[in-house]
Amino acid sequence: MRKSVVTALLASAITLPIALYSAASVSAPADGGTVAIVGATIFDGTGAAPAPGTVLIQDGRITAVGADVKVPRGARVINAKGKALLPGFFDVHTHWTAGGSPGTFPQIANAYVAAGVTTVNDFNEAPEAFAPLRAWLGQLNAPHVRFAARISTPGGHGADWADQATTIWVNTPAAGKAAIESLVPYQPDLVKIFSDGWRYGVSPDNTSMDEWTLKATVEAAHVQNWPILTHTVTVDRGLVAARAGVDSLAHGLQDRPITAEEVAAIKQSGMAMAPTLAVYDPYKRGDVKADDPRLKQTFRKFGYALGNVKALFDAGVPIALGTDAGMPGTPHGPSTLHEMELLVQAGLTPSQALVAGTQTSAKIMRIDADRGTITVGKRADIVLIDGTPWTDIKDVYKVSQVLIDGKLAFGAGAPALPAANKTDRLPSISVPALIDDFERDDRRSSIDTLRVDTPDGGIDRSVEITQTVPRDEGGKALSLSARMAVKEAAYAGFAIPLSRGSITPAKISGYKGLRFELKGDGAYTVRLNGLDGVWEAQVQGGAGWAAVEVPFSQFKPVERRGKTGPAFTGDGITQVEFGGSRGPGKRMWLQIDNVRFY
Predict the structure, then answer these.
(1) d(Cα 21, Cα 269) in Å, to the nearest integer?
(2) Do 374 and 476 fall within a single domain?
(3) How far, in Å, CA of 135 to CA of 112, rounded?
(4) How distant is the alpha carbon of residue 462 from its chain centre?
(5) Each residue of 538-582: pLDDT tens digit?
């Protein structure tokens, strides 16, 4: 499938739910009532041959499956004659990022539901965001979303842009174990480790995680029953992951063809792979020529990835479905369906690709007792399709109806979308005037949010330490000390979220500006970060403490990607940030206290 088809399907994934929900033709069942899906050909996700039958559902669970199942009196009947019935699809690798397509939380949910994707793993979030996002999902018509905690090495992939509240940096076994222990209060559903520093052959590998650290981190996570997926894209590092006990690779191996001996080693380890072919598909941005010199390396690596998928699958290595959706050219929803097409292109049969996207994905995530097949007792996450995708994989795009927990979530008969699905954010909240007086010792603000460091991005990042320190006058202040990276526009700073995980925006238009006390060695930047843009003002620090007031009128929109942001309105604000820049390799320090709106 080429770009025109993906674009059209993405558009339908966003627009169809509203149109079809408004055309409801079947009333919703009362709570506890039985739903009967009759007339479908059932592909149960185990690899068994499809067969006609009836599926009964009660209280969100499958209670009966088969050709001889009787429909009880009073059951709500869904006539699925001529349709295929399958388990809902499971994408084990997605990023619900603002830079994706779509880029807002409710619209991403809409796109997945419309594509028949009923469970996803999200690799994008800081652990602080898990609780507010789980609460938000409770308001939405959405797939089941499982949140991954992130661990990398200093400067490693995934740590080259994120703060350590989002991606923990480790490079020893002790640090790996400590990282897992620090995540226990957040209860992630899984852990992603960025263990392979190879940047697709365009940068040197100087950030890969050593085998001892990886193994210790995996073992600590398994004590918590958290599956481990790793960002691993080279054969040699794949073997390291296998020896370390990783549950599944989160990408395909694409630097060279894998040998029979290497395949056997991975098979023996029990490790699986979710190859994310969709994100690497060289055709995803449109029709291209395979002999284009700019794309020769891309085609070569993609060919290795396809061949290695087939070699591993033929040896019995479990192949799951993952896409890396949210990355450029990899839209949420349609990319999951496209991944199954690409698995077929790699050499799997359509039936095998469907099993990868259902049972196998659930199994490697250790939740196959709950979902992944059409089996009595399992969660009633079901997709109905107008076609026979086990013979023609392209039929996966013909999604007719989707049930999540036994309730119609998409298609004819489904209720109207909740209001929350039609917005792109949570309602703004009010925040108190005092944001942080830095009196707490747990890195949390006066409004109980976790402060985050905001150094520049890249493999070489500015090194900074933020901590509370005593003031001579009494009380405490926040101290930032930094050594700038050796590059232009090096930056170090910290941000105070206005809500937990910076998920719920704040409306601060009732205030006039920002007041704080500052001590420093030169010029600094103050930013108000929001859902619609970033606004900043410049301030000057000196050797002694000084009270600073910055009216909102002095905050100017920051230019991003060549575009100037909107004017400041005081709504949709998520963070207050302080930081500064110095020359390459230079030092910077500042102290801040009593940050409040006035």
Answers:
(1) 46
(2) no
(3) 18
(4) 26
(5) 999 999 999 999 999 999 999 887 788 899 999 999 999 999 999
Exposure on the CB side of residue 283, measured as CA atoms within 13 A: 15
Which residue segment(s) compose the domain that 308 sits in?
Answer: 86-421
Indicate if 406 and 445 belong to the same structural domain: no
- Return the bridge partners of 55, or none: 37, 65
CB 333: neighbour CB atoms within 10 A?
34
| Residue 426 forms part of a structural domain | no
The C-alpha atoms of residue 126 and residue 15 are separated, in whole angstroms, by 30
| CA proximity to 247, closest of 217, 227, 267, 219 | 227
* Same domain as 218, residue 95: yes
Decide which of 421, 453, 479 is a domain's last residue.
421
Beta bridge partners of 117: 89
pLDDT value at residue 462: 96
Q: How many residues are listed for the chain in this entry?
A: 598
C-alpha to C-alpha distance for 319 and 269, rounded to whole angstroms: 14
Query: 198 and 174 share a domain?
Result: yes
Query: In one letter, which amino acid is 393?
Result: I
CATH code at 375?
3.20.20.140
User: Is the preceding peptide bond at 102 cis, omega within 30 degrees of 0?
Assistant: yes
Could you report the per-residue pLDDT of 169-189, keeping only the tens digit for each? 999 999 999 999 999 999 999
User: What single-letter DSSP state applies at residue 431?
Assistant: -
**pLDDT (0 to 100) of residue 30:** 41
DSSP letters, 501-566, are: GG-S-B--TTS-EEEEEEEESSEEEEEEEESS-EEEEEEE--SS-EEEEEEGGG-EEPEETTEE-P
Distance between CA atoms of residues 206 and 209, nearest Å: 9
* H/E stretch holding 176: helix 173-183
Rg (CA), the chain: 26
| 45 phi-psi bin (left φ>0, alpha ψ -120 to 50, beta other) | left
**Closest of 224, 231, 225, 223 to residue 248, by C-alpha:** 231
Per-residue model confidence as pLDDT tens digits over 54-106: 999 999 999 999 999 999 999 999 999 999 999 999 999 999 999 999 999 99
pTM metric for this prediction: 0.93
